[in-house]
User: Fold tyrosine decarboxylase from Macleaya cordata.
Amino acid sequence: MLSTGFNIVPFSWVTLPAATELENRVMDWLGKMLQLPNCFLFSSGGGGGSGGGILQGTTCEAILCTLAAARDQMLNKIGRHNICKLVVYGSDQTHSSLKKAAQITGIDPNSFHDIATSKATNFELSPRSLLLTILSDLESGLIPLFLCATVGTTSSTAVDPIGPLCQVAKKYGIWVHVDAAYAGSACICPEFRHFIDGVEDADSFSLNAHKWFFTNMDCCCLWVKDSTGLIKALSTNLEYLKNKATESKQVIDYKDWQIALNRRFRALKLWLIVRSYGVTNLRNFIRSHVKMAKLLEGLIAMDKRFEVVVPRTFAMVCFRLNPETIFNPKLHENGDHSEDQMNELNQKLLESINATGQVYMTHTMIGGIYIMRCPVGTTLTEERHVHSTWKLVQEHVNTVQGALDGNIIDHEED
Assistant:
């Protein structure tokens, strides 16, 4: 209400210095909580060309801005006519915002490479697979440009190995962006910080405070090691935007770090969250969510009708009905059920649960498997909610299994 009611227009430092300075401050606060290298912080230098942070609207904007910066840096070296040779890399689990950003920045659709992952490696992006793809592209005369590594993928919260991926990418001059939209917030806890080890070798890093940092939409935190690329790719300096403060090169004009000219007063929201809760309470909230997700994971493991499809890393549990036990043993031995049938059964179960209006869970398809996803992530969630959710799931699977057993009896009579 405050940020909307003030209705400020902080696109340049001069329009409201306090808004820019507050944003500089809270981005450094959060950066220090995450133990980001000093090269990502304003406090390490400040002013034109150094690192620092900005509050974007969403991850889509953060990736688009960094990709535009990487593109222009490369084209200034090789000539703008070679844009058709640039290649963008991610995994098949990378958020769709990367592909959209590639489309918007003019990358050839055939030069967007989503590298396959597998259940055997928990759907992480393999550094070896990345290297082989890069070498193949180089042989084809293409130019590697940008890699998006993910900490906490959308489908299953998989964590790409940042350090090893950066080692591969840096050999070929590739801009590395780390997308930690969901799971990055957990890294303010020392026990989770290792998930972003290697970030010192990345060029940019982002997380969504409006996901697991209790901040209202929209609030995406983006840090860059060197803001020069962003400023050159995104700045506009028409006469009516010129002023002495900007010309001094001693202030930050956030209009040159983002897509739009104007912007909302997002810093006030993040400042209030940090000042209201404090670092200790924020860490305890996150830890409590992980603990409750671990509780749910344990409840699922005790019911042989279900399986946890991928290991729980943070506070989201990915599970489904277990085909080994949910189908009639005879039919299972004879292979008379398909993965499609299993997927349909899980879909019906999820729709039945959500139709009650008591809980709402989402789904994904990963490795051809339909998975139900249950995240824990709000300030008011308690263990009793986890138990009641699990009880509801069990009640509905009894109904679904009853219908399935009836169909099996009809099948055997036929």
Notes: DSSP finds 14 helices and eleven strands in the chain. Residues 266-302 form the longest helix (37 residues).
